[in-house]
């Protein structure tokens, strides 16, 4: 029964019952964690051959000894693999080390502090001329670590709604046109983190045209982190944005990111930056000051293990076989407990690593707090928004992949009790305040 | 016979003969490279077991799964290993990825652009208050990639002479005292690049006291890149600078760097930053914005392969067995060709990766040019000095480790001919100018 159909005594009864269950859960001394999109051990085991069976020659496709220094753009076969993975050309790929986040960070450090087109062209410098910080558009809810990089550099973040088809393009175009302060936009275009959308073709087309409206040195950060991470058959296709950019001559404004972190080993994968070759060349020159080159052996290891897209598809199907049941179980438990109560909505994502739950407005922090009391760590409320501030305090990101099924079930039992308890208490509070305040009276 | 003992006709004869030999070498179409301190394939083969035989558990000493995300400071056993290698405590070590240069770069980005003690304390900000760039002291000759980082950030470099016992401490103390613009100093304290000294104890003691003289946020960059890379028995010991700092309470001013790049694989090793724990904590917070953590599997692989200091010593003896003969051969060829000519001096280093040659003043660029014409690539003249400017144009860095012996010999034949040819031509030019200019006449 919907919560707002319950009478005050019914709500009081429900609150007592839920409080009791919450107390009982607290006493269990659980220590469970639903915070981060980490692969489980079982998933990591899928890549055991990465270390064991690749051996043999250290020579790369162009005859380089992968063990020695150098090779800033990555080994040819890893560049070709990244190109296929991300729908780009081999010459558009730089292969990095274990963290695509590092590539994003370093590109922003380059663009903001140093200048894409040389001294004085830093985003910081260009914005300082107007006495303002540089700005980024952030579709919300989004990925906390993207926002963290902006905050680190003092780049001002501007929220944009993420709708079922992708970010609100009307709002974006209006913001960008004639505003040279806006230097970039974060996008997770496929199985978006945390809400699971894949951007519609029309949205991709409009994004590809965005650099035409934008000021100098604007960049789209296209974090295709879940390019092949499907949970259902026939997931929605994603329009190739580089092709859309090429049609408009806006390739310079596009940066594509990806990695094998959620394909092989989360902490020991390889990462990719896709960009047009002139963009890549200037970034490479920037990087050269700071490194002796990437770990080319790990690139070799990965290419020999993952081989090609057909092999990769099979590998990803094995991941799906492990994690899809966990997603299904979370959805079942949400459905069973909350179906009729109208106190939350949630996503049923065709891919990616998260289920996104929206509580009634104003309750996310309280739910996270209650769950924490009962030994279940949830991603802090607000984390999916810039500056950790969810304006409606309602979004909670659940990450079902890491815990074993039994722990996941325990954690979800706690979660639904906390969500119900917070909702009932809120409803009760509202009724009590209403009763205490004769109609027409001003507080 | 010393060149300055030859008559003009003798010199002309010698010039003709050397020119002929140079021409003949040119026609051979050689393509040899003495530029970089790269390990040879034979050396890289010493670590074949790193990949092949380490397998088994991915659990680290504290039970972490090395395959997953996180662990910014590195796995416990790799931290312990780095501590032993660098003479520090385990809690003073952060283990990074394949490039200690990256750790130096990132620390400088942190200190210069962001601020070690928060917003407004960046070296850049502190120097800007005086309308100047921040400055670094650079013992010369030194490592070109250190200088490259300073140049990248617009940090002004100040040359300091590197003497047989280490950098000229009188000059350094004078520069640093009362000058808050000076923010750091580069040191390669053992088997210095390229000149091979190990700093004397007294120099280490005075360096450890330097932060007491310096302004805020000053740091010693102690790049102990060749900590265990000996070429001779009983190489000079290096005083433990962290201990010397602790005696004076100056630990906060010290950063120690090291890596396994020239122990295992040049491009796929692990790196170390040693610093006192509070320093490490602030740097770790800074790094957190940019990465999901280091490649912990590679750390595990390294620790299981290198094991401990006694195993490491044996491993380094195998390196020495491969490269010491190359150093000896280079020295023999220099000796044979140049012993009596008094046109160059060179080092006989007890460790490290380089032989440093000083030509007569004004000749290094010309020697490098002539060698290039004959197909031998040498490190550009000036590379061992800030901004690529050797004030006397005389230092040339030879890197004997990478080429096979036969190529090394060929390259050295070219080198000595070019060195002699340039020297003879310079001497002839001087004599001819003197003859053309009757004494007492003004040009």
Q: Mind explaining what this structure looks like?
A:
Two copies of one chain form a homodimer. Chain A is an alpha/beta fold and 443 residues long. Chain A has two domains: 3-43 and 313-436, Aspartate Aminotransferase, domain 1; 49-308, Aspartate Aminotransferase, domain 2, CATH 3.40.640.10. Helix content of chain A is 44%, strand content 13%. Chain A contains 15 helices and 13 strands. Chain A has helices at residues 8-27, 41-45, 48-52, 76-86, 100-114, 123-128, 144-153, 169-176, 201-213, 241-248, 277-288, 296-306, 309-338, 364-373, 405-436, and strands at 32-33, 93-96, 135-140, 156-163, 166-167, 182-187, 219-223, 254-259, 271-274, 344-346, 355-359, 376-377, 395-398. In chain A, the strands form three sheets. In chain A, strands 2-9-8-7-6-3-4-5 form an eight-stranded mixed sheet, sandwiched between helices. In chain A, strand 10 and strand 11 (355-359) form a beta hairpin. In chain A, helix 5 (100-114) runs parallel beside helix 7 (144-153) and helix 14 packs across helix 15 (405-436). The longest helix of chain A has 32 residues, at 405-436. The first copy, chain A, is globular. The interface between A and B is large, with 46 and 45 residues.
């Amino acid at each position: 029964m919907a919560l707002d159909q319950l009478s005050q005594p019914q709500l009081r009864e429900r609150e007592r019952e839920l409080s009791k269950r919450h107390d009982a859960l607290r006493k269990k001394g659980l220590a469970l964690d639903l915070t981060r999109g980490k692969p489980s051990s079982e998933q990591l085991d899928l890549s055991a051959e990465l270390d064991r069976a690749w051996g043999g020659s250290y020579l790369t496709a162009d005859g380089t000894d992968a063990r020695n220094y150098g090779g800033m753009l990555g080994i040819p076969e890893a560049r070709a693999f990244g190109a296929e993975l991300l729908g780009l050309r081999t010459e558009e790929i730089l292969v990095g080390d274990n963290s695509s986040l590092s590539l994003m960070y370093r590109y922003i450090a380059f663009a903001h502090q140093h200048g894409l087109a040389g001294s004085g062209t830093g985003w910081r410098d260009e914005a300082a001329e107007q006495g303002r910080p540089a700005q980024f558009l952030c579709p919300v809810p989004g990925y906390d670590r993207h926002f963290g990089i902006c905050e680190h550099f003092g780049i001002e973040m501007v929220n944009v709604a993420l709708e079922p088809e992708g970010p609100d393009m009307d709002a974006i175009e209006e913001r960008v046109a004639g505003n040279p302060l806006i230097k970039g936009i974060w996008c997770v275009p496929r199985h978006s983190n945390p809400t699971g959308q894949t951007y519609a073709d029309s949205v991709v087309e409009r994004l590809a045209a965005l650099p035409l409206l934008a000021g100098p040195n604007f960049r789209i950060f296209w974090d295709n982190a879940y390019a092949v991470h499907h949970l259902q058959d026939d997931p929605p296709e994603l329009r190739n944005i580089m092709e859309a950019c090429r049609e408009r001559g806006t390739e310079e404004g596009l940066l594509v990111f990806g990695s094998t972190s959620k394909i092989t080993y989360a902490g020991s994968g390889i990462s990719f930056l896709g960009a047009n070759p002139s963009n890549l060349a200037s970034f490479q020159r920037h990087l050269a000051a700071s490194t002796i080159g990437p770990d080319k052996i790990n690139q070799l290891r990965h290419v020999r293990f993952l081989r090609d897209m057909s092999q990769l598809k099979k590998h990803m199907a094995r991941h799906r076989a492990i994690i899809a049941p966990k997603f299904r179980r979370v959805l079942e438990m949400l459905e069973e407990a909350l179906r009729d109560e109208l106190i939350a909505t949630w996503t049923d994502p065709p891919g990616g690593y998260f289920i996104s739950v929206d509580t009634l407005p104003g309750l996310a922090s309280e739910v996270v707090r209650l769950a924490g009391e009962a030994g279940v760590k949830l991603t802090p409320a607000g984390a999916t928004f810039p500056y950790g501030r969810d304006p409606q305090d309602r979004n909670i990101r659940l990450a079902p992949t890491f815990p074993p099924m039994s722990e996941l079930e325990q954690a979800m039992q706690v979660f639904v009790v906390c969500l119900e308890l917070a909702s009932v208490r809120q409803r009760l509070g509202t009724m009590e305040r209403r009763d205490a305040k004769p109609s027409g009276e001003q507080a």
